[in-house]
Amino acid sequence: MIKTIINNSDNRIVNSTDINLLFQNWRGKDEKIVAVGPHDDDVLIGAGLLLCELRNLGIDIYVAIITDGRKGYCKEEQKHEIESIRKKETELAYASIGINLDNIKRFSSYTPIGFEDHIKLFDFPDSDLYQHAFKWETEEDENNGLVALLLEYFREKKATRFLLPNENDFHLDHQATFKAGLYAVIQSSEKIIPDLGKPCSRDTILRYGVWSPFKGNPTHSIQTSQDTLERKLNGIFAYKSQEQIEEITKRIRCGGPLEFFQEYKVKPFPIGEYTELFFGNKLVVI
């Protein structure tokens, strides 16, 4: 179980085991969590402890992996095989924390039925996602750009809570995934574009961190058991093709069974606040 949840979103630290501190108005097994990662291992690195604990509670978790991982090779001879290598590693990694293959969607791997070995229908290339991330439609004028695909996926899974990568990360794929993901999250809860499914909830949007600090402080932290940390690390170790994995796991182990998150709150345009800022109580309506 989660030993401690800390909510610091109101500049006052509240310490409890109540999951409502992390996910307000928690609905138990009715919850559907979607974690979006630019690359295969990012969600596990940034939120693996949380995912382990949610699976322990019997919560449905869906992992959306955006890019194809083509730039993840550490040996030249792996250059043309790394996508398939990382796909297999991902299946092992997430299975180790209780997320099966049916709950993992690889957005760069859609292919027409019967042409799996020949044609890649969608192309979200690793380290070049910014050039491809912000389209609704492709040349065929269909709703199959990344934003539309994410929106449809969120609605299909009846998502209620979302984990997105830190947009302050140095890696451009993380920035692009956050921006496309956030736009799709917000739009998926609106009554627009009904041909892509019925609106879903967006009760919580949490950023998780991988390489760079958040802009501003985290709003939440969780502490789990050492056993849960070992499960997370075992999952990360599945990525044997990544020669930097030992350094990554060493850093995570030194940090202990802790993860940090920053909540994104969707707010309307604050016209009243701005009016008071500029005019105070002196505004005269003509």
Q: What is the element string, with H for helices and E for strands?
A: EEEHEHEHEHEEHHEH
What is the CATH topology classification name?
A: Rossmann fold
CATH level-two architecture: 3-Layer(aba) Sandwich
Mean pLDDT over the full residue set: 87
Helix vs. strand class? alpha/beta
The amount of beta strand, in percent, is: 5-15%
CATH class category: Alpha Beta
| 3D shape | globular
Number of helices: 7
N-to-C span: 60 Å
- How much helix is in the residues? 25-40%
**Spatial strand order of the main sheet:** 2-1-8-9-7-6-3-4-5
Computed CA radius of gyration, to the nearest angstrom: 20 Å
How many runs of DSSP E, i.e. beta strands?
Answer: 9
Overall tally of domains: 1
What's the main sheet like?
9 strands, mixed
Weakly predicted, low-confidence segments = 111-116
Features:
Rossmann fold, alpha/beta, 286 residues, 7 helices, nine-stranded mixed β-sheet
What does this structure look like?
The chain is an alpha/beta fold. It has one domain: Rossmann fold (3-Layer(aba) Sandwich), CATH 3.40.50. The chain has helices spanning 42-56, 82-95, 146-156, 172-188, 226-237, 245-255, 271-279; strands at residues 4-7, 14-16, 32-37, 60-65, 104-106, 161-165, 204-208, 220-223, 258-263. It has a 9-stranded mixed beta sheet, with helices on both faces. It starts with a strand and ends in a 7-residue tail after the last helix.
